């Protein structure tokens, strides 16, 4: 049985669990002194620790060993997704994290009707951390917000493969079966993109792709494109 996993800001010989991780450990998982757990600091390493003491507002842990984690993808994939209504953005963040995405950006665009605020962004990062723990990753992708599509596109300018899924792409301008190197994947919100936004993406070096003849929901498109790219990169073997 896998040991329970917790994210901390910093690892030291005596590491303290506080805040939400403390509450989850004490009140939900009922962690007790003497239990062995795994601590994560986002560095890609796992730290085995023993719970020394469960206090009122913190749990004191003693780190006993560290090991490398082999669940991270060798190739970096960034997902840029339009903000979606309801809890659909959370679904995309959860599944993208499980699939191995390194970075997630959420953006607003012309036909985007959802909105973002600090609380929602904090919630998305929490979803990413919980998904990372569930799939045994040692690092969770940071979720960031861009107020415009252009800002999101520019954030990935240095990435080798820049892929833009859009209904205006009559055929794919890049062969998704032969991807090599890091990738940035762009998928819109429920309203899709305007032709002007598609041309903006192309002017910034993004290749338009189609995801088939059927109309996909925005959340399905994001998960499908991520899966296809990671499979092509050999990350799902």
Automatic annotation (TrEMBL):
A GO cellular component term found in this entry reads:
cytoplasm
| Gene Ontology BP annotations | rRNA base methylation
Report whether Cytoplasm shows up as a keyword of the record. Answer: yes
Task: List where in the cell it is found.
Answer: Cytoplasm
The UniProt entry, under Gene3D superfamilies, shows: 3.40.1280.10
Q: What EC number(s) does the entry state? A: 2.1.1.193
SUPFAM superfamilies, alphabetically?
alpha/beta knot, PUA domain-like
Q: One GO molecular-function annotation for this sequence?
A: rRNA (uridine-N3-)-methyltransferase activity
Q: Kindly report, in one word, the top-level EC class recorded for this enzyme.
A: transferase
Q: Which reaction does it catalyse?
A: uridine(1498) in 16S rRNA + S-adenosyl-L-methionine = N(3)-methyluridine(1498) in 16S rRNA + S-adenosyl-L-homocysteine + H(+)
UniProt keyword annotation of Transferase present: yes
The segment(s) forming the Ribosomal RNA small subunit methyltransferase E methyltransferase domain are 72-228
One Pfam family for this entry, by name? PUA_4
The UniProt entry, under NCBIfam families, shows: RsmE family RNA methyltransferase (TIGR00046)
Report the PANTHER family cross-referenced here: 16S RRNA (URACIL(1498)-N(3))-METHYLTRANSFERASE, RIBOSOMAL RNA SMALL SUBUNIT METHYLTRANSFERASE E
**Which family does the similarity line name?**
Belongs to the RNA methyltransferase RsmE family.
**Mind telling me what this protein is named?**
Ribosomal RNA small subunit methyltransferase E
* Organism expressing this protein natively: Candidatus Borkfalkia ceftriaxoniphila
